[in-house]
Q: What sequence folds into this?
């Protein structure tokens, strides 16, 4: 299946570059481009992309406001935030709103295409250690209740802690001596019980609820 992508950035050269790189992939098609958040909302409604690459800082309407509006709609596409800065409060707010991850603008072509495939498959773009560092940094400034949600079983809480550490289902299965399919079921139950969109929101939730405590700065 071809992954339909919408590229949103206020710089023409960036849009053109990302478009050319992605269209060169056999399984990805750039179906549209937009120069600001307002255009992105319109294009998303008209084109029904699978994935949106959304610049964070744009005139007229920034990427955060656009992402919130797009992700609030039913059957919303996946959103990857594009940023120049790895520690960006706009990106953190977008992850809280339901974005599936973020990508630095100087990422390689392989990283760009790989990120699109990951989120199109329904996974969160959490592998880069910088994503966890971003969440940890901003989670420190958030009020924390430090309680495990009653809606989760003890085993689900264990799985959530490991998801927040950035472990894959396979790694979690090895850590907890469970079948990988069992871990997948636990993750699905966690997202459903806590009304979370994907693993990215689960990581943010884990830190903000105190299920996981940010480590010391390095």
A:
């Amino acid at each position: 299946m071809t992954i339909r992508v919408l590229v949103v950035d206020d710089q023409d050269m960036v849009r053109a570059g990302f478009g050319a790189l992605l269209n060169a992939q056999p399984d990805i098609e750039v179906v549209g481009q937009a120069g600001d958040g307002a255009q992105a909302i319109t294009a998303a409604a008209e084109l029904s992309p699978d994935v949106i690459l959304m610049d964070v800082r744009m005139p007229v309407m920034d990427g955060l406001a656009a992402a919130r509006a797009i992700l609030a709609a039913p059957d919303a596409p996946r959103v990857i935030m594009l940023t120049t800065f790895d520690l960006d409060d706009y990106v953190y707010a977008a992850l809280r709103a339901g974005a599936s991850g973020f990508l630095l603008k100087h990422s390689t072509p392989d990283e760009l295409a790989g990120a699109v495939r990951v989120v199109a498959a329904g996974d969160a773009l959490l592998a880069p250690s910088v994503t966890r560092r971003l969440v940890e940094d901003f989670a420190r400034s958030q009020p924390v209740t430090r309680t495990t949600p009653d809606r989760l079983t003890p085993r689900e809480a264990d799985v959530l802690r490991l998801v927040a550490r950035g472990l894959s289902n396979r790694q979690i299965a090895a850590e907890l001596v469970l079948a990988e399919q069992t871990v997948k079921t636990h993750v699905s139950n966690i997202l459903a019980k806590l009304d979370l969109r994907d693993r990215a929101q689960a990581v943010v939730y884990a830190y903000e609820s105190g299920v996981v405590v940010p480590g010391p700065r390095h």
Remarks:
- The CA atoms of residues 5 and 205 lie 28 Å apart.
- The radius of gyration is 17 Å.
- Residues 180-194 form the longest helix (15 residues).
